[in-house]
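INFO  loader      accepted 1 record
INFO  loader      residues=897
INFO  predictor   begin
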Amino acid sequence: MDRTAEDVNATSPQQDVLWWTLDPESTLSTMHSNENDGLDESEVQLRQRTVGLNVLRSHGRRSSLSILIGQFRSLIVGLLVVACVVALYFGETLEAVAVAVVIVVNTIIGFVTESRAIRSMEALRSLGRTETRVIRSGRTELIDAEMLVPGDIVVLEGGDVVTADLRIVKASKLQADESLLTGESVPVSKATSDVAADAVLAERSCMLYKGTSITRGSGKGIVVTTGMHTELGHISSLVESAEESRTPLEERLDRLGRTLIWVTLGIAVVAVSAGLLQGRDMALMIEMGIALAVATVPEGLPVVATIALATGMREMARRHALINRLSSVETLGATTLILSDKTGTLTENRMTVTRLELSGGEARIGDGGYESDVSPELKLLGDRLLTLCVLCNNASLPTDSTASGTGDPTEIALLKAAASTGLDLGAIQAKWPHIGEEAFDSDVRMMATFHRDRDRVLIAVKGAPDSVLPHCTSRETPEGVLPLTPTDRTRWIQRYEALSAEGLRLLAIASGGEQSTPEEPYNDLTLVGFAAMHDPPRADVAKAIEACHGAGIEVMMITGDGVLTAASIAESVGIPSDMVRRGEDLPELLSGSAPDGHVYARVNPEQKLQLIRHFQDQGHVVAMTGDGVNDAPALKTADIGIAMGVRGTQVAQDASDMILQDDSFATIVSAIDRGRVIFENIRRFLVFLLSCNISEVLIVGLATTAGFPLPILPLQLLFLNFVTDVFPALALGVGRGDAAIMEQPPRSPREDIMERRQWTDVALFGGLITMATLGALYISLVHLHVPSEEVVTITFLTLALAQLWNVLNMRSARTTLLANDVVRNPWVTASLALCVVLVLVALYVPQLSEVLRLRPPSAIEWVLILSASCFPLIVGQLIIAVRGHLQQGEVAHSYGS
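INFO  predictor   done
INFO  writer      dumping tokens
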């Protein structure tokens, strides 16, 4: 029947219907939908045009105006404004205009760079799209949640985030976390029965609301409202956007900047007072004092930090690591321990059923089905096992059975194995229609489904062998169903251990016995056999783990699989497997009565949380991987929670700090590398900027105190601060980092961004620049007899070039002058070239040189300028070389001992 827009409006979210008062059938009828078939594509498109996308209005985007206004909320800008006013008061119009230009240009640079960084981070966050499973035209599909429309049938499992307001039409042990809406932290049980019209939101047990999450069980729901018409949408429309919190790194930089402001203001006051006592012009000295204060404080700190972090986020996203929280970029560099899951992270998550362990023997399966040596009797038993696998399954395959399916990789592997042997999946599901389900429970590690054929009910069970076997009282054989004797049970356990030792993952498949009921599905089970699956280790994992060891990072495997399977995989990827711990051993480990291992098997989510806290108490910065809804608490507790982007649940992804879009362990190592590089880049930027700025204060202060002519004028100081500071500093902030950074141990998380070594370098390089500039001043006055009003050109050029060459002193002591990451950074080369050109323009363009009071130097003066400006670079490189030699000696000594 053709549907009109008026028909759709009747089922749109604008309709004020108390959906919790309707039973499932009435809801489906009202929404013109079908539980098994859902909507067809034409109906979806019609409703999409009527109700729009399933999205909330975004309050998170920061406006360009707020970014622009933010550039003026700075004590630095205030000091510049004061300088401008003082210059006008004393009639120094040229200086006032120059300072105003500095304010404008500084604002433009800050606005442009911060805008690009913020927009980049906003774009990266939008990559983490939420997907949901729906039934459309009788097929289960995975679609973007924003494409949902009223009437869609959503398939729900534990770990899913609810992406629209739903009326539940089917439920099995279904529970939801509704704390987002109700504040109640305990999961709420859900059912299909309608409730009273006056039931408050927390009591609407037949409803699921957008933004909440499924903590347990499975079910189906029909979409009744989407987007801003959902309960979350109503709340969202009343809530103003909260300002994004600053990262710990940005806070530390901000504190450092404020401290430097007061320190340098004190220095400026002393320098100005000394000049006034010597009878110098008051207006000139006040301007000089303000210029000194402005020049000394690294006003680019917040911008460069934001750019460095945003650049790191982009680089990580390019390497398939999506960062949820900006502060995580900083924490990554301090990671000392990675607790990694096995499946999909260390392995390829490419599950393939390779053999069936049956009572009559072993049946191997290849791409074309059973191998040729499998007997007809074993094939019949194997078909029986695979039939149960098809029934006890929530995944689906497209028509082409070789294509990827929708659902859990393990369940997809079971369906593909059944299809490869020639079984008709559709016919099996039609013969045994699904009438109920006991959802998978991480505590019992089993699931069961109920199916009817005429008057008969079949219960299909699958789960971990050590969980299923205790519930089995019989076994299926080619001769029929026989009792499972103690001897038989021992043999099955031995087969389970032998296959696990080969690194295979096993599922026990069973059927319900005569005493089994929907209320107690695991009574009196009949064991059919094991499905053995192979999931090969990722090719790049061993190398990545070796890189972690070289970087001083420990790697431990935590898995729910058995001990033998875990040990086999760990050994193949380079994790020590000589000491495998079980989850049940945890009390001994936590009490300290047993040593820690590197492999933890049969660990449940609660024990993962305990292990994380245990290692954090030992001083580790812990990164932990997870994919299930039950992993969410551990992911939140870890210093870096890492969720799987391919197979991870939405709840796990929302709880994490980082999402692996390829589920690869190597991506974690790559992200840690970038985290270290970002921190080191910001350190280098700080050392460079502070050493240059402190040299300016020392040069003016010492020269003034000693009675020399002013070595540099206020406008010249502002020009230098703007040219030789900003561009090289920005270039250092986006460098690719030291190639050997992953050969160093992780830094302490308590380590400040400016430690003793960094402050030593600031004093060292700042002192060398000061010596060079004051030396040029002395030689010009005493030996070259340059007039005092002209000597300022020599000191200006010496200081400018010395600061530019100082960039090369920012290399690591582990590198050489011509082979290091600073030299290889194309932005550093470009910034140096640009700054040299700007300095020459200031010198040789008449209008600008007149404003800055400069004159072209003579040949002998150029020799002095170039020689003096290279002095800090030459001495600095010698000191760095000695430092590198001493560091190598320390390493050699530690190895020798």
